[in-house]
Amino acid sequence: MAKRENDSFSVKDLMQFFIKENNLSKGMQKIKIEETWNKMMGPGVATHTTSVKLQNKTLVVNLNSSVLREELSYGKDKIVKMMNEEIGDDLISKVVLM
Question: What does the pLDDT read at residue 28?
Answer without folding.
Answer: 83
